[in-house]
Amino acid sequence: ISACLLVKDENHRLPEWLAYHYTVLPLRNLVVAVDPNSTMSPLSILQRWNDTTEMNITMWSNSDYLPADLYGSRIPPNLTESQRRVRLHRERQQRFIARCLLHHQMNGRQWVVLVDTDEYVLFNRPMKNDNRGISDGACRKWPEPEQVMAKLPMPPPYEQRSSDRKELPAVGEMTIAEYITREQYNSPWYNQSCIAMARVLVGEGKSKDEVKIEQGIPEGFNAYNFETMHSRRHGNVNSHLGNHWGKVIIDVRRIPETILEKGAGNIHRPFKRFCPHARPCFPKTLLKVNHYIARYDEYEGRLDDRRHMKKYQRTVKTLDGKYGRSDDDTRPWLQHFVEKVGNERAHNLTTQLQSIPLNNARDVHIEELQR
Description:
The protein is α/β, with parallel strands linked by helices and 371 residues long. Helices cover 29% and strands 15% of the residues. Strands 1, 2, 4, 5, 6, 7, 8, 9, 10 and 11 form a ten-stranded mixed beta sheet that branches. It has a two-stranded antiparallel ribbon with strand order 3-12. β1, α1 and β2 form a beta-alpha-beta unit. α11 (332-341) crosses α12 (343-350). The two termini are 18 Å apart. The relative contact order is 0.20.
């Protein structure tokens, strides 16, 4: 499985994000673009992964996906500075997504996930009462996306069915790629090229169960260094408040090249023609994305007028609201990662490396990250 990742000053998150998806997807091809306003570069972290694992990471500069003569040309001149930054970010993100998906397609890859560094993809296994508290519109009947143009050949005899959420494996029992291969002739994998993943806000909440936080942690590792270990609480999975829009995994082999060349929409629904509505029904989605809430200083530091303390507090409050609960769905990944790469290498790959100042990083050829 491949991915496209746009980062800005997120070196503290990258090692865990890479290790998790290397194990759970498994992630093998990654394109990373660094926001030009970043104060640090992820080069040292990405280089270590390229040097010591079979993951192929390519780091792009603006010129790889952002036409200088078009960037920002459609933004109205009467916006505030904050509004302008938001619009520029969205345009940069859309252009990056389209170019990155086309890159993966041209290199013969198939499934590509579109998430951020604070988001982790996993199986959406049934949980107690996960059909309660469904807010208005969350599970309404949205228009179906267009069926894929080139379906996989159906091996006879075979009676096609829908993939059953009750048959989803736990993290560690099977990778997501292995699961998709097993289910490739079933709906939605067979007849859709863009699959929606419900997004769930996750944080520590008010109460911390230290026994459960430390449970299953490999020797020599500190659970509090991993968001996927010490953050266990989420609110109502069916509420749009806090969880917001979903994310997608796309089979680029079955998206026409002409569509990718025209550009993408937003990261939640890049192609309206092929992707389902960006607000998926949680009890019906097979994959979900745990979205780990940032510290307030990091949240506020995005320089967006829409981000403020009251909104942040309101979002955090949802973790302990009605229908909230704790779970450990992601917990097995770390033990499996250590078993896969060995204890010493696991330590080296998940340690936060000292970042290279961005000005110095520009002196290093991007090609060094390409095998």
